[in-house]
């Protein structure tokens, strides 16, 4: 698919984030919009320093504050890695269902989309957990921890 024919999902994402923020009595400011765009353009969860490297115009303290607000309204998911550095990504409602591979040495997190057969197996595991513990599973996340190519 060429760039010219690719569907524009950014408008939908911005409309959803705007609604999520309104529900928590927050405004969708230009800084928050730029933050959402930076997260949307990233192919993996990113740190605050990485957001600054990729063109975030806000101060570091404003980034933390705006990420916390976006997390509270349900637009952003914060992930703590093996290095105890927080990484941020848009929630699955705004992106796609995926899982993570986590480097135990440097803490880098990458997204991975699993095959449908594996997703079915995870759904079966969720059903088994429900049967064993009478526990309703709303969603699932899988993190595979190992060593990235840069650290091996």
Describe this protein with a few key phrases:
two-stranded antiparallel sheet, single chain, 152 residues, 2 domains, Arc Repressor Mutant, subunit A, Dna Ligase, domain 1, alpha+beta, 3-stranded mixed β-sheet, 5 helices, disordered N terminus, globular
Task: Explain how this protein is built.
- The chain folds into 2 domains: 1-95, Winged helix-like DNA-binding domain superfamily/Winged helix DNA-binding domain (Arc Repressor Mutant, subunit A), CATH 1.10.10; 97-152, Ferric-uptake regulator, C-terminal dimerisarion domain (Dna Ligase, domain 1, 2-Layer Sandwich), CATH 3.30.1490.
- The radius of gyration is 17 Å and the shape is globular.
- A 3-stranded mixed beta sheet has the order 4-3-5, with no helix packed on it. The protein has a two-stranded antiparallel sheet with strand order 1-2.
- A hairpin with a 5-residue loop joins strand 3 (99-103) and strand 4 (109-112).
- 42% of the residues lie in helices and 15% in strands.
- The protein has helices at 10-23, 30-41, 48-53, 60-73, 116-133; strands at residues 76-80, 86-90, 99-103, 109-112, 143-146.
- The chain is of the alpha+beta class.
The rough form would be described as globular
H/E element sequence: HHHHEEEEHE
Unreliably modeled segments: 1-8
Q: Give the strand tally.
A: 5
| Integer average pLDDT | 90
CATH topology of the largest domain: Arc Repressor Mutant, subunit A
Tally the helices: what do you get?
5
CATH architecture of the largest domain: Orthogonal Bundle
Biggest β-sheet: count, sense, barrel? 3 strands, mixed
CATH class of the largest domain: Mainly Alpha
């Amino acid at each position: 698919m060429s760039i010219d024919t690719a569907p524009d999902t950014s408008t939908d994402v911005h409309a959803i984030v705007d609604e999520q923020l309104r529900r928590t009595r927050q405004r969708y400011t230009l800084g928050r919009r730029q933050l959402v765009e930076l997260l949307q353009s990233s192919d993996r969860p990113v740190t605050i320093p990485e957001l600054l490297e990729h063109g975030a115009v806000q101060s570091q303290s404003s980034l933390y504050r705006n990420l916390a607000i976006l997390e509270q309204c349900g637009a952003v998911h914060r992930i703590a890695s093996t290095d105890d550095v927080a990484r941020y990504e848009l929630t699955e409602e705004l992106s796609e269902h995926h899982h993570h591979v986590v480097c135990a040495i440097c803490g880098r997190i990458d997204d991975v989309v699993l095959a449908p057969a594996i997703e079915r197996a995870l759904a079966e595991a969720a059903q088994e957990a429900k049967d064993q513990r009478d526990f309703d599973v709303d969603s699932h996340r899988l993190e595979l921890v190992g060593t990235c190519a840069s650290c091996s």
